[in-house]
Specification:
263 residues; alpha/beta; Rossmann fold; N-terminal domain of TfIIb; seven-stranded mixed sheet; 32% strand; binds S-adenosylmethionine
Length: 263
């Protein structure tokens, strides 16, 4: 299934100017700390599902040997340029099966695109199916039902000057709207992108993303249902607290619960 979102399709090439690798240093540092702290085995290999432009990976690759999976060919192209030493695979986090096991699996902001419980469960099943016993899945959703806060933000970067061409630049406004009702499992994030091309022309693109919202008990239950021992923790960034979830693959598994990855 191709992504319908402009950001990951026709704007994929702009990703490094919208979201730069240096913005991910703190998140990646926390990921290494949580994964090493929770795992019962030494962590050498890590599978990232929904790895996007590879910004997290650009930091994580110093600690782990990475395999990066994403749905979008454009985002994979951007990530390959940034992380040529990492393995890249096109796939859907709900269904991909690589036929091998990893010491850790990481699902960062891409998990927000799971908008139904069935999709979230399928993504967690993929994580579990690729984990070695004693390994850990580390999940960092942007929001849970309990932690959700509407917000606005902005950002963007200038391209470094290359040859004679005028550097491109991007700026964006991000507007996270509240869900429509208390029981709603979805919220919308609207983006206004202002993109300055190599000729100096600026154009505007609006992109609306619908994202999933689930209560903490649902995350913990689904992790348990896919054969992982769940735990919630908190990470701090920019003065805000974020829920993170860890799912440990038991060293000894109960029959029928631990499925291994099939190609
Ligand atoms: C915000 S970007 C991830 C950025 C990434 N954290 C980074 O470090 O560059 C979200 C990514 O999720 C991917 N995505 C969305 N749904 C997906 C799915 N079902 N399976 C795999 N990737 C998916 C999109 O293609 C997009 O590249």
């Amino acid at each position: 299934m191709a992504t319908p979102l402009k950001l990951y399709r026709e704007l994929a090439d702009w990703w490094p100017l919208i979201s730069a690798p240096e913005d991910y240093a703190d998140e990646a540092r926390d990921a290494v700390r949580f994964i090493r702290g929770a795992s019962k085995i030494p962590v050498r290999t890590l599978l990232e599902l929904g790895s996007g432009g590879g910004n997290n990976a650009s930091h994580l690759k110093r600690s782990f040997q990475l395999t990066l999976v994403d749905l979008s060919p454009g985002m994979l192209r951007v990530s390959r340029a940034l992380n040529p030493e990492c393995e890249h695979v096109a796939g859907d986090m709900r269904t991909v099966r690589l036929g091998r096991l990893f010491d850790a699996v990481f699902l960062h902001d891409a998990i927000m695109y799971m908008r139904t419980e069935a999709d979230l469960r399928a993504a967690l099943e993929t994580a579990s199916a690729h984990l070695r016993p004693g390994g850990v899945a580390y999940l960092t959703p942007d929001h849970t039902t309990e932690s959700f806060r509407p917000s606005t933000g902005h950002g963007g970067h200038d391209e470094r000057r290359k040859g004679g061409r005028r550097p491109r630049a991007a700026r964006y406004l991000e507007w996270t709207l509240p869900p429509s009702g208390r029981a709603s499992r979805e919220y919308a994030v609207h983006y206004a992108f202002l993109l300055k091309d190599g000729h100096g022309s600026v154009h505007l693109v609006h992109d609306a993303h619908r994202e999933g919202l689930f209560p903490r008990p649902t995350w913990l239950r689904l992790l348990r249902e896919v054969g992982l021992v769940p735990r919630r923790a908190t990470r701090l960034e920019g003065g805000r607290k974020y829920d993170v979830f860890l799912g440990l693959k038991p060293l000894t598994s109960s029959p029928g619960r631990n499925r291994s990855a099939r190609g």
